[in-house]
Fold these 4 entries.
Entry 1:
Amino acid sequence: MAKLAIITGATSGIGKATAEAFAKAGINLILCGRRAERLAALQASLSTQVQVHTLTFDVRDQAAVSAALNSLPEALKQIDILVNNAGNAHGMGPIQSGDVADWDAMIDGNIKGLLYVSQVVIPWMIARQQGHIVNLSSIAGKQTYPNGNVYCASKAAVEALSEGMRLDLNPHNIKVTNIAPGAVETEFSLVRFKGDAQKSDAVYQGYQPLVAEDIADIIAFTVTRPAHVVLADILILPTAQASPAVVKRQQ
Ligand code: NDP
């Protein structure tokens, strides 16, 4: 029987590419994000391959998350794979000049949003004694870099939550995979720098960054391993990157 996956942050970047890779693998989809028109376009393009359902909500709004997920018909609550991908960096600068609205957006989106979605989906997985949760962390969750402070903290929290989920869900036969990419060229930096294309472009200049499809390929591989195999923690870097701050760039 075809598997069913729910992907948060499917309107762009890694989430969108993962939806496309899953569709290619024959995995039915529930796609989530705030930008409804993008979800509708993706649904239209992928529903020739698999069944696609969409849900529009902000992961920071616990009531909206709960209402949207619980509105699914019973058949769509039989979720095999949850990809907790929604998230972003907001701003980049020294801790002493941090913007509270940016801090809230990262802590509420990257940490609490992941928890709100998981809180609804995990009991459905426990009821079936099976499931696979894929959490999008970052190299930023493993190594803090200058001016990355709160974003790095939010992804360090994802690392801890992946470990915590793996421990607590072990009795229930639920796999947990932590995915930690380095630099991936998506809308990530455009969001971080609040639409400043010059600053965003500079992040990816002088070397070949990863693209969303590189990460999506690996996520698709991960969720298609045999039942007894889990890839627990995966760090994926562009060849030019050795750490968050060490990137070999052409002059
Ligand atoms: P994009 O900006 O391209 O995509 C982010 C996605 O998250 C969008 O689909 C967006 O959808 C969704 N999203 C953001 N905030 C919310 C919210 N409050 N509620 C609902 N959905 C939300 O970035 P990426 O694809 O690069 O990022 C995906 C994940 O990968 C993130 O968790 C990011 O931290 C992580 N990551 C990215 C790296 C990179 O270099 N790009 C490196 C390491 C990790 P919408 O706006 O429609 O709601």
Note: Strands lie at 4-7, 28-33, 52-56, 81-84, 131-136, 174-181, 184-185, 210-211, 233-236.
Entry 2:
Amino acid sequence: MKLSTRALNIHPSATLAVSARAAEMRRQGRDVIGFGAGEPDFDTPPHIKQAAARALSEGHTGYAKPSHGIPIAREAVCEKLRRDNSLSYAPDQVIVTVGGKEALFLAFAALIDPGDEVILPVPYWVSFAEQIRFFGGMVVPVIGAAANELRITADQLRDALTPKTRVVVFNSPSNPGGFSYAPEEVRKLAAVVADRDVVVFSDEMYDRLLFGQGRAHLSFANASPAVFDKTITINAVSKSHAMTGWRAGFAAGPRELISGMARIQSHSTSGTATFIQYALAEALTGDQSHVETMRREFERRGRHMYLRLSSMPGVKCFAPTGAFYCFPDVSETYPRLGVADSSQFCAKALEEAHVALVPGAAFGMDTHVRLSFATDLETIDRGLDRLAKFLKQ
Ligand code: PLP
């Protein structure tokens, strides 16, 4: 069968490929420890499940009306953005989406024409690059320097902008980097784009998962009044509320853009399932104590993983300040292990040490690997014991 060029140009997700190989090895009876998962190992809090069950028993089983978000869900998004992010949006500036991923997809679909340039800080979450290419956009990578713990600077952003730049992607806290930008850095980046005709996609999926004393999250849209009108804020309850399987995300931004996205959504997914939108509203406006419980646990595990990784020969790691990933540079070990890149490193670690990691190549950095600490401490220790032994060979 002849597939479209578009379909052929999409690479399968590297993170899912690692999980699939690890699952296959487990089926063969091998004890594989997975550091690949990009999802919390916690269950969705009971009051959120109850909200979905209640919506079902009350008969909320028809199409969502309107498809881009029932009023209660869009109002809940406004409340969350006001409470956590000091952002003031009206419900007609909000769209409810099938996870954060659909919000990004619709926003790229609504903005990118073939040949448009999209600035993408490296390392980047894998789907950004694939989605940009899917719409014919040109990825303009801006590489975060190790000296700045992989965060890009305002000067780098300024140098990358051209008259063809249509979109700037910004993701803090970062997947895969595990770093987050300080408010002052966000303000400096925002000043660079303030008078430029670009749209900023601010992916704030991990805004509630910040670690370390005095850490604060500044939403890009909140950096200055000038950037508010050119920023779309994208988020979901997937990571913050342990709801990856529910597929509930949202975006808020300029009305014109949101309504363009809503038009595309109305001809594709028709939006998030209605009863799940009730659960989304509960997650965003109900009891939030579980978010802090999870955050604290991730912080403890992240610190532990970072300290252990840093003591391994040839591994250079920064302390994670957000999300739930460590992203060490392991390239010094390549010659010793007889591997040429991060994919070979991960394949060898999986086959020989039975530890599943994600190659940095998937995130634009072939010198690094990603380890998720969304798994319990005991498993983390067992996996790191194996990794330490593997690296000593
Ligand atoms: N953006 C980032 C930075 C992510 O890490 C992820 C999930 O891994 C997503 C978006 C997509 O989230 P969702 O599962 O809500 O579609």
Note: The first helix runs from residue 5 to 9.
Entry 3:
Amino acid sequence: MKERTLAIIKPDGVSRNLVGEVIRRIEGEGIRISAAKMIRMDKDQAKGFYQVHEGKPFFESVTDFMSSGPCLVMVLEGDDVIGRYRKLIGATDYKRADEGTIRRDFATDIEKNIVHGSDSVENAKFEIKYFFSELEIF
Ligand code: ATP
Ligand code: MG
């Protein structure tokens, strides 16, 4: 089924010059990038983005991290792209991520894990709308 997902190259991925490498892997999978831009969230915007995690022990820290520098946000499109992109990025904890995944290859920490990917159709809709207007998606 044709889906959209929100992908983010997090501040650690941008500052470590991994933008090209992540995009190469996405496009290499046959996934189409239908929107992309660089943004920097402030603390409140990061809290709004990760509002599903409000109250969890890592909430303060992850929202500090996500607002610590610019991110590249993208909309990806394709058949079953939510699951396919999650597979490409690997498990949240890079130590448990499969070999050859982006997080396994580049993450340094459970929090600083290079990339974000929506985990459901419903969350993808919310997250895409958080950053993009329909006019910016091609
Ligand atoms: P993302 O939503 O960023 O794609 P995910 O869906 O794999 O990641 P979530 O459970 O949604 O994982 O957590 C959101 C983010 O919060 C993680 O990617 C990571 O940066 C951070 N995080 C998650 N769990 C922890 C933890 N136990 N300790 C520190 N940071 C964490
Ligand atoms: Mg998540």
Note: Residues 53, 58, 62, 92, 110-111, 113, 116-117, 119 surround adenosine-5'-triphosphate (ligand 1) (CB under 6 Å).
Entry 4:
Amino acid sequence: MKKASLVVLISGGGSNLQAIIQAIGKQYIHAEIKAVISNKASVRGLDYAASANITTHVIEHTQYPSREAFDQAMMQVIDPLKPDLVILAGFMRILSTHFIEHYENRLINIHPSLLPKYKGLNTHQQALENNDVQHGASVHYVNTELDSGPIVIQVVVPVLADDDKETLALRVLKAEHKIYSAAIKMHCENKITFEKNKIQYDGKVLSKPLLWENNTLIQQ
Ligand code: GRF
């Protein structure tokens, strides 16, 4: 089977990128990361990429007059690489409709909440303020509405009585690493596909997200 081509977009810590690199190293994901693009210079994620000999690009959004111009600059780097999947891994910029439509069906994101709960920022803080007993993360394909594309996998993470937003974020992040690699693996193997705003799983429309429990995927 041909290796899938991936491009990963980051803005910072890059722990999801690191988990994807490790999953490729273990041949859990059959793919090659063709490039990592960061909209910020000197972030840890760029070091992870460089130490795995992956080409890195820093494209700073602050250097562009508009969102569209920044997105266009990224597209000029991404398109010659012909990626099968463009992965948003802690990429903290809202993308233009043009960019999203250009990578239609092959753009994926991870979000630290049980979507549709807590779209946008500060999800851990909101879960604590609302006294939620369960929080979690979602992998979803990207459509033109923020954090609203169809969900592939969700993982539930318990909120503990003594959690603050840092401890909770760390527990969620560890779970993110597992579900993101699992979703990317399935995309690369064509076990899941995304078309016409619907996910197909093993050739059938996925009506509810898959659940990650005890390191296993469960169909609801
Ligand atoms: C993750 O929680 C991700 O879901 C969110 O930002 C965080 C970044 O993590 N969008 P990292 O950069 O992959 O470590």
Note: The longest helix spans residues 165-188.
